[in-house]
Amino acid sequence: MKRRGPSRRGGNAMLPRGVRALLPVLGASGGAGRSALAGLLAQVLAPTTRTVLVDTVPRGASPWADWLGLGVAHGAAGDVAGDQSVGLPAALVSPGRALDPDAVRGAALRRPVPVRRRRRGDDLPDLGADAADGPGYDVLTDARPWTRAPVAVPEDPRWYAHLLETGGWFAGVVDTSTPVALAHVAARNAARPSALDEWAGRPDAVPVLVTSASGFGAAALARLVQVLEHDGLAVDRMVAAVVEVAGTDPPRWMDGELEPVRRRLAAVVRVPHDKAIRADGLARLDDLAPATLAAAQEIVTRAAELVRPGPAAEAPTSAAPTGRPTPPPVRHRGPESPESPQPGWVPRR
Description:
Number of helices: 11
Oligomer: single chain
Number of strands: 8
Helix content: 25-40%
Number of domains: 1
Radius of gyration: 20 Å
Distance between the termini: 21 Å
Structural class: alpha/beta
CATH class: Alpha Beta
Strand content: 5-15%
Shape: globular
């Protein structure tokens, strides 16, 4: 199938106007630069639409507090609703509790996006009507001290869709911490839907699978795509990012490993090695290489071609004590065929 090239309007990828889009960033292999890629996607989206990045990584393991200049256990923070401190408020913990627009907006940390100088003849960035505050994106992260209980962000995609509507955002990048392959296989063996099942079933969500540009990373991505395709997930509505985390060239046979994956996914994008990211993460956005942002823009462009208006956002009505949604009942289909991975498992078609 022939792929269309990246959008060139204003040098920025454009989501359909008025359509809320979710981009969950999921790691197919560890140490692949998942959080950095999530930030790059938010930076590319920011000039054209109101964008929020939701950090679900547990406090202390997440780099976002340092990238935002807060550090871990910064200040005498509490709940936003109580003293307007920085961090994800308790009002956002339970998916069964109504989100308060003022608390949501008050918890967001604004991160300006630098406007790069362009060559003569290039279009200037198109600041969409949704980006009324200028180029920049909001970050929701838990930067509270260790004395506070950790924020239990739910996995249910409906909660994130409701969060976008409550906060007035049109694009949401979700930096997930759950190893996607392990979580999906564990859910399959337990005969219940996984978080990736739920993400893949939403027309307003385009999962972004991240792996390292190495032999192991390519093999991990190929295995994951094979499992997802076998389970009936729409892998042709997913995008993969192959990130060069080291300054050395990946093995030559890596492209051969990725070739069958390219034919199944909507796109496989190579993200080049960036010295600024490897040195400082996303602490200094001015030092990012143009090729790095171009790769992130290509991912967003592919996602913009795939996203469709989703169902009306509504908060989940029930949740498990851990903050995770109660899984729907799984239909059993009787005797298992030899190729079926687990008794009772019904792949989503």
